[in-house]
Amino acid sequence: MRINHQEFFANDLSYIVRSATEGDAKNLSEVRLQCDGETENLDREKGEAYIDESGFQQIIKNDTESSCNLFLVAEVNNRIVGFSRCEGNKLKRMSHKVEFGVCVLEEYWGYGIGKNLLKESINWADTNEIKKMTLSVLETNEKAINLYKKYGFEVEGILKNDKILSDGNYYNTILMGRFNE
């Protein structure tokens, strides 16, 4: 599915949130790899579960053709600096919901890019009769948890000792959901 692009301006930075196109695939592969190496808030370490250009082309093609998926990018001066995906399910019993994930390059934190990717995804979900959005977030990522709560997400569960980080300690994953009646 696609959305109309939106322009944003924050802290002297202008950026666009728009639907991904197959031409973004190479840049997306690079951005995802870089994001994975910049934070432990994501599931992967740098280089794990690597998706190359052709892999991203296929994901974007599938998401564009699917009414239950949405792939957005955030672009600054024709460079992708973040992205988000809503991935739905074609099984009838789960067709009412999508899973949301987001990634923004560290250099661009603090400009509301993640927030605007989330807001555009919520708008898309609400206007396309998607009743539930789910996500998972590391317990230490308080900024993200607070943002999600601000936009109507509630804690639905906790996966205890779910991830081991570079300090050798185990951390919980928080499962959150937002239901639109």
TrEMBL record:
Source organism superkingdom: Bacteria
Protein name: N-acetyltransferase
Keyword Transferase listed: yes
PANTHER family listed in its UniProt record: GCN5-RELATED N-ACETYLTRANSFERASE, N-ACETYLTRANSFERASE
Keywords (A to Z) from UniProt: Transferase
GO MF entries: acyltransferase activity, transferring groups other than amino-acyl groups
Keyword Zinc-finger carried by entry: no
Species in which this protein is naturally found: Neobacillus mesonae
InterPro entries according to UniProt: Acyl_CoA_acyltransferase, GNAT_dom
Domain N-acetyltransferase: 15-181
Gene3D superfamilies assigned to the protein according to its UniProt record, in alphabetical order: 3.40.630.30
Lineage of the organism: Bacteria, Bacillati, Bacillota, Bacilli, Bacillales
